[in-house]
Design a protein that fits this description.
single chain, eight-stranded parallel barrel, 13 helices
Length: 313
Amino acid sequence: MRVLAALALVVSGNHLVNGTGKTVRLLGVNRSGLEYACIQGWGFSDGPVDGASIAAMKTWSINAVRVPLNESCWLGINGVKTQYSGTAYRRFVQGYVARLNAAGLVAILDLHWNVSGQEQMPDAAHSPAFWSSVARTFRGDRSVIFDLYNEPHDITWKCWRDGCGRWAGMQQLVDAVRSVGGRQPLMLGGLAWSNDLSGWLRWRPRDPLHQLIASFHLYNFNTCAAPACWDASVKPVAAVVPVVTGELGENDCAHGFVDTYMPWADAAGISYLGWTWDTWNCNSGPALITAYDGTPTAFGAGFRAHVVSLQGR
């Protein structure tokens, strides 16, 4: 029961607290694969998601794993192969979340791909149904956080909140989760591929439970990639609500950029999750590992060393 209490997170002011009342920052990794393997018709995930692979993640002293999902695979629509969609896909995701939670890790479920990629925004035709179904499935699991849409882009803040044309707004997705009894904290990424939080506070949706988190994505090639921008647009948000850097990385197979950001985020009380726990080329991913036993890339080595150094602080 103590482990479950430690994982039962709620928003309290501008930070997360667990079931024992302790302030928690999410320091973890992304586990990409469940968003594309199914839609491409060759599996549920890219690489192992078993207990051994989770144990390897734990050696990095992380406490959270973000799991990108595919809306079409979850709902069993748009021609996804039956063996990798619908009930089979949902059971696979449930099994992975259960293993992550059993290992003491918070699972962040992210609507990453609508069909075969990510569009500008969640689609009004299916994304609310996706979140109603996900929230209903995990309604009793307080060790899960929902990331409502990966990276909104090329829209206005009004569209972001209220929807426009064929896009569903964040308010509609918040309502979809709450309407079926989902009480989990909700991450909402800003504009410009979640790199712009400048209008987040003004345009944030209404949540009757007051459980909203601002999601910020950061790579060395983003527009807001310097401390001056973080001070101007991210820190003011972090003073009001929790900020989770849902994706953090650099595409030079090094760690100088994240070495600058992580101490800044530590001082501001901001969470971060490295992209990604996959054995891709560290330039094109970027990838944290070269093997699923946790062997790091040079980028991953820097990320791991910093997270490990925070233990006991």
